[in-house]
From TrEMBL:
Species classification: Bacteria, Bacillati, Bacillota, Clostridia, Lachnospirales
GO BP field: 'de novo' UMP biosynthetic process; purine nucleobase catabolic process
Matching InterPro entries: Amidohydro_3, DHOase, DHOase/Allantoinase_Hydrolase, DHOase_cat, Dihydroorotase_CS, Metal-dep_hydrolase_composite, Metal_Hydrolase
Required cofactor names: Zn(2+)
Domain annotation Amidohydrolase: ranges: 326-422
Residue span, Dihydroorotase catalytic domain: 51-238
GO cellular component: cytoplasm
Pathway in which the depicted protein is active: Pyrimidine metabolism; UMP biosynthesis via de novo pathway; (S)-dihydroorotate from bicarbonate: step 3/3
Ion transport is among the record's keywords: no
Official protein name in the record: Dihydroorotase
Gene Ontology MF term list: allantoinase activity; dihydroorotase activity; zinc ion binding
PROSITE patterns in the record: DIHYDROOROTASE_1 (PS00482), DIHYDROOROTASE_2 (PS00483)
Reaction(s) the record says it catalyses: (S)-dihydroorotate + H2O = N-carbamoyl-L-aspartate + H(+)
Length: 424
């Protein structure tokens, strides 16, 4: 199969190329990027007025398989990814059973190969069953293909055990993806602690819940030299800690999710579980700090924390429903609307945070449109205005606070290894 993408506006941070070019793809590989290519191709895509970008890479998704297939499967999650412009996704291990050994990693990779159109790079748990008592077999998971380790959904509260996992992750050459949440400080909170939680009479989650663990984890990264990536940063102090870590030369990176830079707790309309996620929507001051951190390169990555749940689960009250919202199919539009069209990020910087930087963190040969690279490509219209409609999602999860929201920027075509996996 050969594809010729004509007249697109190419954005490639890996080479610094920004401008109108054609791209010729053959046998899954980018053969040529040039001003006017006239190769014969089986498929010609007219990309006039479109952004042509290295495929997006999401470091943080929940695919729910095995165990919670009613929420999402590898197949439906992969379709949602393709529809959102993501060509590579990293599923978290909080499934049932937990992804905590080499056979589970192999099972996931095999199933993904059969059922998913996008690349799936699994993340292994830090402790067995995510119970926090005994380390998972880190070395064998890394050998089987785990690209990172994470206890996502919670933190490893036992710091000595965590220290040992960091040493092993470093030896295995993979990063730790940290979900920062002090379990003992949460005390039943369901939303950000502040004026709004008091107004809604709902138990709050303080910034300290995240901040104490973010600080601890950075101290431990310094101690062990492990590559540390902080997931879904939501507070201004998390940002301060990452800034300090970077200034100190530590291999520490951070991610922010679209919902955290788009909404604050003041936007929560009432007891609506589509606004319940962990960490919670924070204050306006925190939101501002996140945007500035993205702009100032303190935050390296935009990741979705795509967390599908069933309608029945999310119909429940804030107090009773599970934490999490879906994100794969809204990330690009929200980033365009909230960060690019407001001047926080240039289009190139956006692509860096959605593709090039995630690839660097994983140490994989992606996030580039250079000749010779595997053709993972996202084509999007940066100008199209539309209203998000959860009923059009490919994901099983419809749990999003962005239903009916007007946005700008729409993914049109997603290509994985030279194969069109999504076309609007
Ligand atoms: N983010 C969430 O609110 N929920 C995630 C877990 C997580 O990423 O912390 C989930 O698995 O549902
Ligand atoms: Zn998490």
């Amino acid at each position: 199969m050969s594809i010729l993408i004509k007249n697109g506006y190419v954005l490639d941070p890996s080479t610094g190329l920004e401008g109108k070019r054609d791209i010729f793809i053959k046998e899954g590989v980018i053969k040529e990027v040039a001003a006017d290519i006239n190769e014969e191709a089986e498929r010609v895509i007219d990309a006039e007025g479109m952004y042509v970008m290295p495929g997006f890479i999401d470091l943080h998704v929940h695919l729910r398989e095995p165990g919670y297939e009613y929420k999402e499967t590898i197949a439906t999650g992969a379709m949602a990814a393709a529809r959102g412009g993501f060509t590579t996704i990293c599923p978290m291990p909080n499934t049932n059973p937990t992804i905590d050994n080499d056979q589970m990693i192999e099972y996931l990779l095999l199933k993904a190969k059969k059922e998913a159109g996008v690349n799936i790079l699994p993340i292994g748990a830090i402790t067995k069953g995510q119970q926090g008592h005994e380390l998972a077999d880190i070395e064998s998971m890394a050998k089987a293909g785990a690209v990172a380790l994470s206890e996502d959904g919670k933190s490893v509260m036992n710091t000595a055990l965590y220290l040992e996992s960091m040493k092993q992750a470093k030896a295995a050459g993979i990063p730790i993806f940290a979900h920062c949440e002090d379990k003992d400080l949460v005390q039943g909170g369901v939303m950000n602690e502040g004026a709004k939680s008091r107004e809604l009479k709902l138990p709050g989650i303080s910034n300290a819940v995240e901040d104490v663990i973010a600080a601890r984890d950075i101290i431990m990264a310094k101690e062990t030299g492990v590559q540390l990536h902080l997931c879904h940063c939501s507070t201004k102090d998390s940002i301060t800690f990452i800034k300090l870590a970077k200034e100190g030369g530590l291999p520490v990176t951070g991610e922010v999710c679209p919902h955290h830079f788009t909404l604050s707790d003041e936007d929560i309309p009432g007891d609506d579980s589509n606004y319940k996620m962990n960490p919670p929507l924070r204050s306006k001051e925190d939101v501002q700090a996140l945007k500035e951190a993205l702009r100032d390169n303190i935050i390296d990555v935009i990741a979705t924390d795509h967390a599908p749940h069933s309608e029945a689960e999310k119909e429940k009250s804030m107090a009773e429903s599970p934490f999490g919202i879906v994100g794969l199919e809204t990330a690009f539009s929200l980033t365009m609307r909230e960060l690019v069209n407001t001047g926080y990020l240039t289009p190139m910087e956006m692509v860096e945070k959605l593709s090039t930087n995630p690839a660097k963190i994983l140490g994989i040969d992606k996030g580039s449109l250079a000749a010779g690279k595997i053709a993972d490509i996202t084509i999007a219209d940066p100008k199209e205005e539309y209203a998000i409609n959860v009923n059009e999602f490919a994901s099983k999860g419809k749990n999003s606070p962005f239903h009916d929201r007007k946005v700008v920027g729409k993914v049109k075509t997603t290509i994985v290894a030279g194969k069109i996996v999504y076309k609007e």
